[in-house]
Design a protein that fits this description.
Length: about 650
């Protein structure tokens, strides 16, 4: 099986930022995922270097276009290794081979009569480098560039796009996953419900010289989109190269919603005109905003990849971007959001599981993988979660639903952390009669860590490599480098030597919430120092409790929990045993029996502290605490439970 995955080729009129990094990290992660599945993968990115915008940017810098594009293209090329992004091809539209390919395609389409000469009058947006239709305007402005397009009339060459409209509609209907997520497929189908106009594919040299000359009329250069889209063919050696034959049939493009129309309409119709098969899938994601604000140079809130990687570390950034954005929807970047993910998902959940488990293996098993034992119910439940995670992971990664794949992975991490609490290896270690049981528990933890190493490899290659080293596994061991082979339970071998590793993710100081510091000119992202800690009294707080900083507050995992069952605890008139979903089921013993009956508890949404150390109360293990306000009614104490003001999913985080 082969995969050919591409990013857009980025315009060199701006330096790389968070948005470009996201798309490229997505494509890199997907290429690593497909390699993990044993496929032959080609991953391509590059730069788009012709057209009005680039010529103008060069003029602003008072350098020639070639000098200018060399400089900015190199910035893109240099940025990607900062994130462990490893493309196989970096294509530039100024490469001689690309120019040849574009001219060849133009000549072919012209010869077969799909390009004609005509006059066109239309609304041209320089920012988009294309003519807009009246319908696309919002209040007379281009919606992306917030300025009115210019009315231009000129003689030009046109591609008979309209001729392929029906064939494209039929193709989209016949291939459900041609464009995804579905909202973008629907958007394309809806714009195809109107007649397509032919596409103007030339610019007179009187207006623009920085482009690829038309092979059949040297008074014109090629429209930048017709030039740029062909990069996807040039990069794999169209038309005769062996790579073209091998990869084209497996092409998948990743883009954001801003360039849907060129990719979903221009490009497939061009391919139909060339007589080539269409690409397999177009994956369309939303936009990253900074806080709630669109990222823009003029606002000065552009987040630069270099600053991000240096500040938070490569894997934290990769994980954050993939986990935080629901693929297809917009997402919001804030320093607080990334630090929270680092401290809670990475340092607390994954990092702690790894270091606790390895420390126990060192202490109770001489740093060796112990023998697996007989599986009890608690072990079987863990294995089930692991196997469920593996199948969900494969499905979601293949569908570009990275955030869901990672959610599933974190369910296993959280289950494994609870498994440690539930099995208490430290207690087993005190009883020589429990030696076999202790081995089994520790073996199961090693298996969880190995499976996590396998599935995190495409997302966080460095972390996965460090975990593999800790588990005593070579980087190319199929149990952590090959999905079908490694995605089974029980492959760890007793006797394997484990190695101590440094903590995977150090905690990072939390910035003042929501703050994005912006450096003038450079506009990089930075964090603010956390507020000073201390015991000073703040309005409305107890002096003894003192002031906590935001990082301390964030250590408290507050969640919405739904009560699914409730019963009295025999021999106690104060305690109720609650079974809640948050989102996994857990038991909480709450001292509310004098104020609430079990019957009135079921179905309620409560606020709980989800990460309190479990305690045993009247023989029942309590895993969390219900939050309630204490008040006095008619001279009597009363507890009033806290809740949320509208229905939300059980397990929702409260912050
Ligand atoms: N040169 C064209 C693409 C030609 S492809 C044949 C172009 N270049 S661009 O530099 O403007 O890049 C647009 C792409 O950058 C988006 O489609 C997306 O992949 C990425 N992003 C730019 N800003 C972004 C956000 N704010 N958020 C997410 N991705 C964004 O269009």
């Amino acid at each position: 099986m082969t995969t050919y995955i591409t990013t857009p080729i980025y315009y060199v009129n701006a330096e790389p930022h968070l948005g470009h990094a996201y798309t490229t990290i997505v494509a890199d992660t997907y290429s690593r995922f497909r390699r993990l599945c044993g496929e032959d993968v080609r991953f391509q990115t590059g730069t788009d270097e012709h057209g009005d915008k680039i010529a103008e940017a060069a003029a602003r810098e008072q350098v020639s276009p070639p000098e200018y594009v060399d400089r900015i293209s190199a910035l893109y090329k240099k940025s990607w290794p900062l994130f462990d992004i490893a493309p196989d091809t970096f294509i530039r539209t100024t490469d001689a081979v690309h120019i040849q390919t574009v001219q060849r395609v133009l000549q072919q389409v012209y010869d077969q009569g799909d390009i004609y000469f005509g006059e066109y009058s239309g609304l041209y947006c320089k920012g988009c480098e294309r003519f807009l239709t009246e319908k696309e305007l919002v209040g007379g402005n281009c919606p992306d560039h917030q300025r009115p397009p210019e009315q231009i009339t000129e003689q030009n060459y046109f591609f008979r796009m309209s001729r392929y409209q029906q064939a494209l509609i039929d193709h989209i209907h016949a291939h459900a996953d041609f464009i995804s997520p579905e909202r973008y497929r629907n958007e394309v189908l809806s714009s195809l419900s109107e007649p397509l106009e032919d596409l103007c594919i030339s610019r007179p040299t009187a207006r623009l010289t920085w482009g690829i000359p038309l092979p059949f009329d040297s008074r014109f250069v090629t429209y930048v989109w017709f030039d740029a889209l062909i990069n996807y063919l040039t990069g794999i050696g169209y038309p005769d190269g062996p790579s073209f034959a091998k990869y084209w049939g497996a092409a998948e493009h990743v883009i954001a919603k801003d360039i849907l129309k060129p990719h979903a309409i221009y490009w497939p119709t061009m391919l139909l005109a060339m007589g080539l098969p269409l690409y397999q899938r177009l994956h369309v994601h939303g936009f990253w905003n900074v806080g709630d604000v669109k990222m823009s140079k003029s606002i000065g809130n552009v987040v630069r990849p270099g600053a991000l990687a240096a500040e938070y570390g490569v894997d934290t950034v990769r994980y954050f971007l993939l986990r935080e954005m629901s693929f297809g929807l917009d997402a919001s970047f804030t320093p607080t959001a990334i630090v929270t993910r680092n401290n809670s998902d990475l340092a607390n959940d994954l990092g702690n599981l790894f270091s606790r488990s390895l420390a126990m293996l060192e202490k109770y098993s001489s740093g060796l993988v112990p023998a697996p034992g007989i599986a009890l119910d608690i072990d079987k439940a863990l294995t089930r979660t692991a196997l469920q995670m593996l199948s969900g992971y494969h499905e979601e990664m293949a569908r570009f639903q990275f955030h869901r794949a990672l959610q599933g992975v974190w369910e296993l991490i959280s289950h494994a952390n609870k498994y440690i609490v539930g099995t208490e290896p430290w207690t087993l270690a005190k009883d020589p009669a429990q030696e076999a049981r202790l081995s089994a528990v520790l073996y199961n933890l090693v298996e969880c860590l190995r499976l996590l190493t396998l599935v995190l490899r495409p997302v966080m290659p460095r972390t996965s490599a460090r975990m593999a080293a800790g588990l005593g596994l070579e980087d190319d061991d199929p149990r952590i480098s090959n999905f079908p082979q490694g995605a089974r339970w029980g492959l760890s071998r007793a006797g394997t030597k484990l190695h101590k590793t440094e903590s995977l993710f150090p905690r990072v100081e939390t910035p003042v919430q929501g703050q994005v510091a912006v450096t003038p000119g450079g506009a990089d992202c930075a964090r603010q120092a956390a507020p000073a800690q201390g015991k000073k009294k703040v309005k409305g707080t107890d002096a003894e409790v003192g002031v906590i900083d935001f990082a301390q507050f964030q250590q408290v995992d507050l969640r919405v929990a739904e009560v699914v069952a409730a019963e009295r605890i025999v021999k106690s008139d104060r305690l109720l045993k609650l079974t809640v979903k948050a989102p996994e089921e857990r038991t909480i013993v709450a001292g509310i029996a004098q104020y609430y009956t079990p019957e009135e508890m079921v179905g309620r949404l409560l606020l709980i502290v989800a990460n309190l150390e479990p305690v045993e109360l009247m023989g029942v293990q309590s895993e969390g605490m219900v939050l309630a306000a204490s008040t006095v009614v008619d001279g009597k104490k009363r507890l009033v439970l806290t809740t949320v003001s509208a229905e939300v999913a059980a397990g929702s985080k409260v912050a």
